[in-house]
Design a protein that fits this description.
heterodimer; A: alpha/beta; Rossmann fold; five-stranded parallel β-sheet; 5 strands; B: alpha+beta; Beta-Lactamase; five-stranded antiparallel β-sheet; 15 helices; rod-shaped
């Protein structure tokens, strides 16, 4: 069962992220949604995810700039849904815009991480995130457990 | 005796009469009193005229001239000595006459008394005649004096009349020549007694017509003014007190021209205080009124112009405000566009860089297995470094553009505290370095705290960077109190400095004075500093010498200035 839901439209970012998580054997724990709609489909177990076991992911890694439904909209829906609001959400974005950061925190994001350009920094950030949220952090009830 | 009394009472009879009257009464009295047949009196001429003669007969009629001629030969002697017997000049037969010459120093006349009686005059008759003659002389003299007096009075009267006429002539000449109309009206007869000829110039009417028809005056008044003027006039005439009147009104001339008249009049009253005459002077004040009117019109025009200017001013201000509003919204739109641009730069430009960096890294990790040589590994390193450098550039550019877009949020900033924060931020870069920090007394002032912090971080970071070759680096931060409430803050270092001929390039975006392999940097730091200081209404400048350090200054007003 995947513990990490990663919402990312850029396949290269997906690949690099998975590379970073591989070292901690977390790559297989990742399910990728390519846009906001797909992410919501996964969370609500509908469309192509209709048959998946009904557990919440341990963490949601969310990009902000996404096709169809953008990251802030996904965040808003998650945090206003009784069943989903306990999922820890980490915004993982290229944007250093204060506006985005403020909006995210207002919507109840649990962490806000700007993707470093430097690969080492990027890998470190992803690893730390993965380790913390998927391994160290005790997820709320109803989440996928290790 | 009775006769004497009668004679003595003669003067009473001639009182108040003229010479002729006196003579007639006198002769009449003497004929009656002395029982004479005739009495003749000739009075000498008083002035230039012939002598005057009077005759009185007891019976019948005769002309004085005829008797005078008959008596003339016998008048040479005065009868005080003797009487003469002559042919009776008034009847048949003879007559006795007594001749008396009148006057003491000069002869003023002759008196002859005659009677048919041969014994005439008896002694008592002679006495009475003598007394009477004296009376006659007195009477004549008196009459003559009276006549002379009358003549003098007449002369005086004539002279006075001439003076009066002269005075009147002068007055009339004045009245005739004055441009004002002078007039006198009798109230009882309602006749115009006098009106000066300028009436014809002003009213355009004939003076004779006015004399003939005084109501022309009233009729000529402008219909709109007539009631007012007439009422005013009636009130004036009817009042007991007011003797003077002063009014302005319009007249309509026969040619249709309208003129303004300023009329002032006085009342002449009789001894009972009843007004009898009105006299006055009427001036044509049309020109003055027109001038006044023109002045008023000019004033009105000025006022209107002022109002118009005011309105135009408002319109202009509104236009300016609209224009400002339009520009503001344009600016806001541009700002929004810029924001969107910056956002997409932030997002989309960094992602490929991350990928360049990431995949180069992955390639490097696989290097041993794919047998990459040293050169290839160096190439990969260069790609990675370049990507990282571009990432930094983008970050700095975004920060720089954010300063231009963000509103400055002024608050009271404690500069000492801010410097402490900035120093601790750059200390990381200064690790392992020997830097002596000199921080002077710093004030508080109004500024945008986070922006000012960025200024200090940039300046201190530069100072740290460019003192790197120094084994003992010195960085000093201080404040100079300037005039006009200005504060000048400086950051001084003993670093590599710069050539003053490039000073103008220091603050430009992407301007660098050092090769990037000596001192890393994006060339945006000082541009950011300048932009922030300018947004605070301040100034920024630098001084330096090659290899002898640099000093960067910025000045701000204590109140924080304006955007």
């Amino acid at each position: 069962m995947e513990r990490i839901l990663m919402v990312e439209d850029d396949p290269k970012d997906v690949e690099l992220t998975l590379f970073a998580l591989k070292e901690y054997k977390l790559a297989n724990e990742v399910v990728v949604a390519r846009d906001g709609e797909e992410a919501l489909d996964y969370l609500y177990c509908r469309a192509k995810f209709a048959n998946r076991p009904n557990h919440n992911p341990a963490v949601l890694l969310l990009d902000l700039k996404l096709p169809k439904v953008d990251g802030l909209e996904v965040l808003k829906q998650v945090k206003s849904d009784e069943k989903l609001k306990l999922i820890p959400v980490v915004v993982l974005t290229s944007s250093r815009e204060e506006k985005d950061m403020v909006s995210s925190y207002k919507l109840g994001v649990n962490a806000y991480v700007v993707k470093p350009v430097d690969f080492h920094e990027f890998v470190n950030a992803i690893r730390e995130l993965g380790v913390f949220w998927a391994l160290i952090n005790e997820p709320p009830p109803g989440s996928v457990k290790k | 005796m009775n006769d004497l009394v009668s004679v003595l009472s003669l003067p009473a009879m001639w009182t108040g009469r003229d010479l002729s009257g006196v003579a007639t009464v006198l002769l009449d009295g003497l004929v009656r009193m002395l029982d004479l047949d005739f009495a003749y009196l000739r009075a000498c001429d008083f002035g230039s005229g012939p002598p005057k003669e009077w005759i009185r007969l007891a019976q019948g009629e005769a002309a004085a001239e005829d008797i005078g001629r008959a008596l003339a030969p016998h008048l040479a002697h005065d009868s005080t000595t003797a009487s003469q017997h002559i042919a009776n000049p008034v009847a048949e037969g003879t007559a006795s006459i007594s001749v008396f010459h009148l006057g003491i120093q000069e002869s003023i006349g002759v008196f002859v008394a005659g009677s048919q009686r041969p014994e005439f005059p008896t002694e008592s008759e002679r006495l009475l005649l003598q007394v009477a003659t004296n009376q006659v002389a007195i009477a004549l003299q008196e009459a003559r004096r009276m006549a002379e007096q009358d003549a003098q009075v007449e002369i005086e009267r004539i002279r006075a009349g001439a003076a009066l006429r002269e005075s009147e002539r002068r007055l009339r000449e004045l009245a005739d020549k004055l441009p004002e109309v002078i007039w006198i009206t009798a109230l009882d007869s309602e006749k115009v007694l006098y009106c000066s000829p300028s009436f014809e110039t002003v009213w355009g009417l004939k003076v004779e017509d006015l004399y003939r028809e005084p109501r022309l005056w009233t009729w000529s008044i402008h219909p709109e003014d007539r009631d007012r003027v007439v009422a005013n006039f009636s009130k004036w005439i009817g009042g007991a007190e007011i003797n003077y009147h002063d009014i302005e009104f319009r007249i309509v001339r026969p040619d249709g021209e309208i003129r303004w008249i300023h009329e002032r009049g006085v009342l002449t009253r009789d001894e009972n205080g009843r007004p009898v005459e009105v006299s006055g002077i009427s001036a044509d004040v049309t020109a003055a009124r027109q001038a006044k009117r023109a002045l008023e019109t000019a004033f009105e025009q000025i006022r209107a112009l002022k109002d118009q200017l005011y309105t135009e001013n408002i319109a202009l201000r509104e236009r300016v405000e609209r224009e400002v509003a339009r520009r503001s919204s344009e600016l806001a739109a541009m700002n929004k566009e810029l924001e969107a641009f910056a956002y997409s730069v932030s997002h989309d430009l960094r992602a490929p860089l991350r990928h360049m960096s990431g995949y180069s890294e992955l390639l490097q990790k696989k290097a041993p297995s794919i047998q990459l040589d040293e050169t290839c590994r160096r190439y990969i390193t260069i790609i990675m470094e370049s990507a990282k450098r571009m990432g930094n550039l983008i970050d700095d550019l975004l920060a720089f553009s954010r300063i231009g877009r963000a509103e400055t949020q002024r608050s009271l900033v404690n500069l000492s505290q801010l410097v402490t924060e900035a120093v601790s931020e750059v200390r990381q870069e200064a690790e392992g370095r020997n830097i002596e920090w000199k921080i002077g007394a710093l004030p508080e002032f109004y500024a945008d705290r986070s922006m000012l912090r960025l200024v200090l971080v940039n300046l201190l970071s530069n100072a740290v960077k460019f003192t790197r070759p120094r084994s003992q680096a010195e960085i000093e931060i201080g404040c100079i109190n300037g005039n006009n409430g200005e504060l000048t803050v400086f950051v001084k270092d003993n670093g590599v400095g710069f050539d003053m001929k490039y000073v103008s390039k220091l603050f430009g975006v992407f301007q660098r004075l050092h090769p990037s392999d000596s001192f890393e940097g994006t060339g945006i730091g000082l541009a950011t500093v300048q932009r922030i200081i300018h947004r605070h209404g301040g100034k920024v400048w630098a001084e330096g010498l090659v290899d002898q350090g640099a000093t960067f200054y910025f000045s701000l007003s204590k109140e924080g200035g304006s955007d």
